Amino acid sequence: MKIAVCDDDKKIREQISSMIKRQAPDSDICQYASGEDMISTGIDHDIYFLDIEMGNVSGIELAKRIRKSQEKSGKRSIIIFITGFREYMEDAFDVNAFHYLVKPINEDKFKEVFKRAEKEVKTLEEYNDKYIIVKDGETRKKLFLKAIQYVESSDRKVVFHMDDGMTETYARMYDLENVLGDSFFRCHRGYLVNLEKVTAYSANSIQVLNGDSIMLAEKKYTDFVKAYLRYAKNGGIVNV
């Protein structure tokens, strides 16, 4: 794993790095004394430990830049904030932070959070590699799950609305619902939505990252909210 530790306090950086090494001795740890230092490297990491109050570029600003840079790549990094100020918690969750640790850092709490972060990194890696094979005309295509915005039923065919276009094939929505797994939700008889792509929802519609709005059946609303909250609680990307 590639892990970034960004804090303007050298002692804190070394303490965090030392605790990481005890749990994950093979990890690649990069220390940064400021947000500017980290930005200048352009290195992508699996886990970020970010102090919130730092010089000209705060941890919150760093997190926003990380999330922005990952919109196209589809990568999902773990962000853990470390700070002495609890009042920043709301801002931390606005950028989909995995956790929020308060200084002075309790080592037992750190171990617990880091263990869950490690598990989440492995889960994300597995998800990024998942794909299905569909027949489009005379050709077969590999569709990565992370690139599917939603699936739409059209007569006997289904249309996969992807990050970079559309793919049409013959399939049953019921079968796809089982194949695609828990990160997708059957929000309507004619639609399966990728929960990672949801940007907003109301009682009767769901908006996704590509700007489309799809139908949410009234009787499905409660189940959708429960599924979305469960997905978010388990570490999924939240764009709402």
Tags for this model:
alpha/beta, 240 residues, elongated, 36% helix
Question: What does this protein look like?
Answer:
The chain is of the alpha/beta class and 240 residues long. Helices cover 36% and strands 32% of the residues. It is built from seven helices and 15 strands. Strands 2-1-3-4-5 form a five-stranded parallel beta sheet, with helices on both faces. A hairpin with a 2-residue loop joins strand 9 and strand 10. The longest helix is centred in the middle third of the chain and has 23 residues. It is elongated. 31% of the residues are buried.
Task: Offer a concise description of the structure.
The chain is built from seven helices and 15 strands.
Question: Which helices and strands appear, and what pairs or packs with what?
Answer:
Elements: E1 2-6, H1 10-23, E2 28-32, H2 35-41, E3 47-51, H3 59-73, E4 78-83, H4 89-94, E5 99-102, H5 107-129, E6 131-136, E7 139-144, E8 148-154, E9 157-162, E10 165-170, H6 173-180, E11 184-188, E12 191-194, E13 198-201, E14 205-208, E15 213-215, H7 221-233
Parallel strand pairs: 1-2, 1-3, 3-4, 4-5
Antiparallel strand pairs: 6-7, 8-9, 8-12, 9-10, 11-12, 13-14, 14-15
